């Protein structure tokens, strides 16, 4: 099954939203594969957001992402990448629907609480970047109740 990289950004950590965000992914039926609190370096964040290098907001984005620890997670399940993005809501909070993480907790595009991989190949790259130590394997007792 598919895996996605989800990260609570520094504003989400400071605002006490880590538990609420984890609960949404757990309750949806995803399996937690990896989890850690990290103070990322600017070099690491520039690799994570390499696709956005050159955008006018890039320096501010890196500064924001380095302003405090983030919670790095890997979640696994059916269509984890696309469903994760739906759960996050649109990038611009003006367009993010109530019921989504950004639609419920964020007002500004530059303080939007949570990251989610945008494609299966970027998820694979991001998981390697944030968890070079590798991932734990275990079986999840609810699987037969969540999948057909
Ligand atoms: P991530 O899950 O964080 O990757 O967001 P995304 O995939 O919804 O958007 P994208 O990858 O295009 O941009 C990454 C992050 O840069 C966004 O989540 C925002 O925090 C920030 N960002 C994107 N566009 C803008 C912008 O126009 N202005 C500002 N200030 N920040 C932006
Ligand atoms: Mg993105």
UniProtKB/TrEMBL annotation:
Entries under SMART domains matching the protein: NDK
Q: Which reaction does it catalyse?
A: a 2'-deoxyribonucleoside 5'-diphosphate + ATP = a 2'-deoxyribonucleoside 5'-triphosphate + ADP
Which CDD domains does this entry report, sorted A to Z?
NDPk_I
Please report the stretch or stretches of sequence annotated as the Nucleoside diphosphate kinase-like domain.
1-137
Which InterPro entries does UniProt cross-reference here? Answer: NDK-like_dom (IPR034907), NDK-like_dom_sf (IPR036850), Nucleoside_diP_kinase (IPR001564), Nucleoside_diP_kinase_AS (IPR023005)
Q: Which Pfam families match?
A: NDK
Which one GO biological process term can you cite for this protein? GTP biosynthetic process
Q: Which domain of life is it from?
A: Eukaryota
- Top-level class of the enzyme under EC nomenclature: transferase
Gene3D superfamilies in alphabetical order: Nucleoside diphosphate kinase-like domain (3.30.70.141)
Stated name of the protein: Nucleoside diphosphate kinase
Supply the source organism for this entry. Answer: Exidia glandulosa HHB12029
Q: What is the lineage of its organism?
A: Eukaryota, Fungi, Dikarya, Basidiomycota, Agaricomycotina
């Amino acid at each position: 099954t598919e895996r996605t990289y989800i990260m609570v950004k520094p504003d989400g950590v400071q605002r006490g939203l880590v538990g609420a965000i984890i609960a949404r992914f757990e309750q949806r039926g995803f399996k937690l594969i990896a989890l850690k609190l990290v103070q990322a370096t600017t070099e690491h964040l520039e690799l994570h957001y390499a696709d956005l290098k050159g955008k006018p907001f890039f320096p501010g984005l890196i500064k924001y992402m380095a302003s405090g620890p983030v919670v790095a997670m890997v979640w696994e399940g059916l269509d984890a990448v696309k469903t994760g993005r739906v759960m996050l809501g649109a990038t611009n909070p003006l367009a993010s629907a109530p019921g989504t993480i950004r639609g419920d907790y964020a007002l500004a595009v530059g303080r939007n609480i949570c990251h989610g991989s945008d494609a299966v190949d970027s998820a694979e790259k991001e998981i390697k970047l944030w968890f070079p130590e590798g991932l734990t394997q275990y079986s999840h007792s609810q699987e037969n109740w969540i999948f057909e």
